[in-house]
Amino acid sequence: MDFNPCMKHQLIRNTVREFVESEIKPHVSMMDKESRFPWEIIEKMKPLNFFGLQVPRIYGGADLDTISYAITIEELSRVSAALGLCVTVHNSVGIFPILKFGTTEQIKRFVPAMASGDSIGAFCLTEANAGSDAGGVETNAVETKDAFILNGTKIFVTNGGVCGTILVFAVSEGSDKRNQGRRNQAGVFIVEKDRPGFSVGEIEDLCGMRANPVSSLFFEDCKVPKINLLGRMGQGMKIGLIALDTGRIGIAAQALGIAQAAFESSVSYAKERQQFNKPLSKFQTIQNYLADMATKIDASRLLLYRAAASKDKGKAFSAEASMAKLYCSATAMEVTDLAVQIHGGYGYSKEYDVERYFRDAKVTQIYEGTSEVQKMVIARSILSKPS
Amino acid sequence: MVSELPWNSKTGTLKRELAGGMMDPASRRALEAALQIKENQGAHICAVTMGPVMAEEILHQAKALGADDGVLLTDRRMAGADTFLTSLILSKFIQKEYKSFDLVICGSQTSDSETAQVGPQLAEELDIPAIGYVNQIRVKKDNIEVRRHVDDFYEILTMDLPGLITIDLSAYKPRYLALEGLEKAFENPDIKIIDAKKLGLDDSFNALKDSPTRIIDVFSPTTQNENRVLKGAVKKIVDQLFDEYGKVISSGMGKDIKTHDHDEV
């Protein structure tokens, strides 16, 4: 067991950090203030493979392992959690299900444009009456001879305002006679943004992640050809759950990046800010805060990399990913809270980055499965093992 | 590159833990210049560095960016080499392994010690012509034409090959490394590691002892100047500022400010 990053992972971190520090950092505060999605930065990110992190090279990706993926999202989110969100959602729940469940024809049709960043991915499950309870989805898919007709409204869709390729979770009442009287069948459909009947709602006015255009998506008699169905009808729940398992590694990495940023700001502020004629860092209370932050961040990082390593080894990683997501997001919340506390009044001001970290952190405990859902997943894994 | 003083005055050694390893900024530009030559005219690039084992990381980076070979010259007996012995060691490597080279490109100076000596000294060791602080290269049929910045002028020179140039920090802005290239570089991580013996250095060779120059101490300079606060009405302060510091301000700006003009306004 070696807890040191290998040379490759160290170089991945340095490479991403160098880019985000010089090309993204100077704009992050304004992006947040203006709730602006920075297309000009996206253009710079495209040739560096940020939009095809784990996509095989034949489809234009970087073919990274999952630890490298997590490090990339962590470093991106350390500077801009909103862009980290865009990239991780695009790569994990946007592209990954197509690679995993798509036919070769579907992969060839959709993945290259996504991996190049020309078409940004989104995954929509959540509705007004369905979130943690995916079984409550009402968006329906009616099967015709050569197509499915989608009707419904998805809400809180990350990348909603900028997406080009959308994975839509919908249910059909089962035209197949054998399924009469059984539960609705769920399916995942790949929808291109220019399909008639598809439209984007207003951008949500959210607490954090303000540079990411989160929105509702409308499907009104949106006709999707059968060749756009991912897997089979009835596989929707399975695809959704597996997509979310990978998504959780990304969100855990994002939460970790936010926590790391808040921690670094706190250390430098504590060294520099003088009260009672000495720097804050000389007070034991502040030292205790910093020690707690560092310990939790380190534990988070180890959980995250273990989950990523499990995925790379082809082992079951669902519970590991949930543990990482649960703990990293809790750490992000606790660390950003302490960071604001250490900064005092300045921490509450938009002039300082920790105010943004604090707002950005909260949602990591909510999306891609709330903390409560993560505990369900973890408990299920514990209780399913023979005792 | 370090922000804190990396020198331990008591032991006279570098505190390496303070500095994360990185490719020196000028070397990044030298590599960029090489990559552009490779893209335009075609070339075989060998990235070479001398340093501790962890310096291998930057050779992977160089290969990911487009260098064909990566070579690390590393040995305990080579540690502590000054610029004179560093140049000597580099020249031994080139003479042994890359005899038929056309052009050696170095960064003009490192960001830590900033001596700018290794490039020119290496050219002396190899007995080839050298041009320092280059910011533009044109590869011609039998030679290269380079541009360099000297005082307020540009100087254009041609140089026969083989030769050596150093690249300054004003041009060849390095490209960002794409993640695909990085992943690929580690799929064939064939960095060549060469020690003192392989270079043919004597058994008695010890860079720390043999270096003709030695660092005695490194310290942060303390300023002798004191801050002065001028007090009073604004007009009075401005007059006083120009009267007492007009010359200093003029020389700082590089032009003569007429310190009494404002009186008439």
Q: Which CATH architecture of the largest domain in chain B is right? A: 3-Layer(aba) Sandwich
CATH C-level name of the largest domain in chain A: Mainly Alpha
Under CATH, the homologous superfamily of the largest domain in chain B reads: HUPs
Domain count of chain A: the total is: 3
Low-confidence stretches of chain A: none
The count of DSSP E runs of length 2 or more, i.e. the number of strands of chain A, is 10
* CATH homologous superfamily identity of the largest domain in chain A: Butyryl-CoA Dehydrogenase, subunit A, domain 3
Portion of residues in helices of chain B?
25-40%
Shape summary of chain B = globular
Distance between the termini of chain B: 49 Å
The CATH C-level class name of the largest domain in chain B: Alpha Beta
Order of helices and strands of chain B: EEHEHEHEHEEEEHEHHH
Secondary structural class of chain A: alpha+beta
Radius of gyration of chain A, CA atoms, in whole angstroms = 21 Å
Segments of chain B where pLDDT lies below 50 for 5+ residues? none
Strand arrangement within the widest β-sheet of chain A reads 1-4-5-8
Total DSSP helices of chain A = 11
Notable traits:
heterodimer, A: 387 residues, alpha+beta, Butyryl-Coa Dehydrogenase, subunit A, domain 1, Butyryl-CoA Dehydrogenase, subunit A, domain 2, Butyryl-CoA Dehydrogenase, subunit A, domain 3, 4-stranded mixed β-sheet, 4-stranded antiparallel β-sheet, globular, B: 265 residues, alpha/beta, Rossmann fold, 5-stranded mixed β-sheet, 3-stranded parallel β-sheet
SSE map:
The complex is a heterodimer of chains A (387) and B (265).
Chain A: H1 7-24, H2 28-33, H3 39-45, H4 66-79, H5 81-101, H6 104-115, E1 120-124, E2 140-143, E3 147-157, E4 163-172, E5 185-192, E6 198-203, E7 215-225, E8 229-230, H7 236-272, E9 274-275, E10 278-279, H8 284-312, H9 318-343, H10 353-362, H11 371-384
Parallel strand pairs in A: 1-4
Antiparallel strand pairs in A: 2-3, 3-7, 4-5, 5-8, 6-7, 9-10
Helix pairs in contact in A: 1-4, 4-5, 4-7, 5-6, 5-7, 7-8, 7-9, 7-10, 8-9, 9-10, 9-11
Chain B: E1 7-8, E2 13-14, H1 25-40, E3 46-50, H2 56-65, E4 69-73, H3 83-97, E5 103-107, H4 118-126, E6 130-139, E7 143-150, E8 153-160, E9 163-167, H5 179-187, E10 192-194, H6 207-210, H7 234-253, H8 261-264
Parallel strand pairs in B: 3-4, 4-10, 5-9, 6-9
Antiparallel strand pairs in B: 1-2, 6-7, 7-8
